[in-house]
Amino acid sequence: MDGPSDLTPLLQPPGTPHRDLRVNFVAGAVEPGKAAALERLLWRACRGFLIASFRETERQLEDPVTGEPAMWMTFLISYWGEQIGRKVHKITDCFHCHVFPFPEEEAARRVALEQLQQQSLELREVLRETELFLSQVLARVQRLLPTWQVQVRKVKAVYLALNQCSVSATHKCLIAEGWCATRDLPRLQEALRNSSMEEGVSPVVHCIPSRDMPPTLIRTSRFTAGFQGIVDAYGVGRYQEVNPAPYTIITFPFLFAVMFGDVGHGLLMFLFALAMVLAENRPAVKAAQNEIWRTFFGGRYLLLLMGLFSVYTGFVYNECFSRAMTIFPSGWSVAAMANQSGWSDEFLAQNPLLMLVPNTTGVFLGPYPFGIDPIWSLAVNHLSFLNSFKMKMSVILGVTHMTFGVFLGVFNHVHFGQCHRLLLETLPELVFLLGLFGYLVFLVVFKWLCVSSAAAARAPSILIHFINMFLFSSSPANPPLFSGQEVVQTVLVVLALAVVPILLLGTPLFLYWRHRRHSPRPSSPLQEDKAELLDAADRDEEKAEGPREPEELVLSEVLMHQAIHTIEFCLGCISNTASYLRLWALSLAHAQLSEVLWAMVMRVGLRLDLGLGVAAVALVPVFAGFAVLTVAILLVMEGLSAFLHALRLHWVEFQNKFYSGSGYKLSPFTFALEDE
């Protein structure tokens, strides 16, 4: 090809006719918005006697004027002749282009290129070494960062506490006022002395009187923390008020177990809680962030006792996954009944149900050693028998639980110096509660002990007696349980009604009488002067100790408060006693759900009429389904239901008899949260 091509070099090699022709270059950068206009102007002004190449930078570069990063359009202009060169330089100056120095000699350009390549290599090496050094520093910082974070949080907590201190009048020391447990006061003084030995300044600790109610500090352990949390969820107790948590450790799992009684279910819950207790010190267990897991883990000791007590009540109910257990020989003899009744083959064929009469000699041998006799699981009146037993048991447990709560209120009254409430509140409450519902418990126990099986058909109804007690009447068809029963019932109802006015008006009238007694009015000039002197002394004392709240008794408020308490207690005794019947209802519901699950899953699988090998394989999914449903329904859902009902019984029926929960917790300065 004779003509020039794209690959023909622009500069002729030495020895050619045009070897003296020189090509000049201008290189620089312009703003992207001006690049198109610059290119058009160069082409028109120079009449096309140049070659211009524009390219946008790959990343932002620093603006030499403003110092801010910005995108640029770089260009390279090739031209011939000095006149065109002057035009190119003038145009680039008009567009405020940044022109880069470009050597005209080829040797100089090569030297500059080599220098730039060398500098690029050196810069890449510096960057690589810098990145290596920074990665080492960051790796070390990563190891030290948790410790630094803890230290920063501790310093922040210290400064937050110091900011709450007040500055003395001389501005030379800080004064901090706070609460400290009496038992920890020597440790506080020792810690202050040890921390100030190097500074040469000894802190001074004074115990100052305060009219504010102190906060409540209850020390807990891993075992008691869960039970104390149940009580604190109702309300933090007042300072030195009776704490229900120690009694809740026993009563809460027991009432839960009454509703959840089953040996198998209780054992599964116990083993699950025991696994959490044994693994409580493992870091992976503590660091788990799942909210449901942390809830279970926080109450692991509560679950442990709930499962243990459920095993106990399961033995009492004689139920293990709804199946009865024959631990001891039954107290009923079917052989004796068959021998004395003369049951023939025809009689047995015509009567699918047989009756065991305890009055027949040798049929009833005595009570079962522990729990319910397993023969009751075969009886058709099994549910009726458990209904009667569990309902009466619930009433007995409820009245006992509420009475115990009223007795705990005695310690509060004695400790706070309110002994008048023993006679005007506690005694009337006990008379009302025990005179009505305690008498009901007495009737249940008396009927159990004194009515034999021979007289069971003619046994009087406790429910009718209890209704007649409030109606002051009797039923000829319902004979009394003991002689003089009507007189006793009348006296108890009259006493219960008579103590209501005492409970309503006793405390307000006593407080009003005591207030009038301790605030007499002066009746002579001498007494007036003496009163003025005493008032002046009291004002001086108030200046020294701080403002004192006026002790003023508003009789209407006291009467209103006492009326609410009286109505709540009297009506609450009735509603709370009925509320304890939830023990009976949930216990039967749990037993029936367990029975239905066994009948609809396991019994169907066990009755499969298949070969031994096929039946064994078929039982695997059946047992898996039974296990999943047992855990999901009977353990989780029924367990949660029984837990909530036990929680309600403690908060509403038990704690409101003596526990106000109107205090506030002590929030001491601690690094415990920062350490976590």
TrEMBL record:
Coiled coil: none annotated. Keywords: Hydrogen ion transport, Ion transport, Membrane, Transmembrane, Transmembrane helix, Transport. It is a multi-pass membrane protein. Its main location: membrane. The keyword Ion transport applies. The keyword Transmembrane helix applies. InterPro entries: V-ATPase_116kDa_su (IPR002490), V-type_ATPase_116kDa_su_euka (IPR026028). The chain crosses the membrane at residues 254-279, 299-317, 393-411, 431-450, 462-479, 491-513, 610-637. It is found in: Membrane. PANTHER family: V-TYPE PROTON ATPASE 116 KDA SUBUNIT A 3 (PTHR11629:SF21), VACUOLAR PROTON ATPASES (PTHR11629). Belongs to the V-ATPase 116 kDa subunit family. Essential component of the vacuolar proton pump (V-ATPase), a multimeric enzyme that catalyzes the translocation of protons across the membranes. Required for assembly and activity of the V-ATPase. This is V-type proton ATPase subunit a. It comes from Erinaceus europaeus.
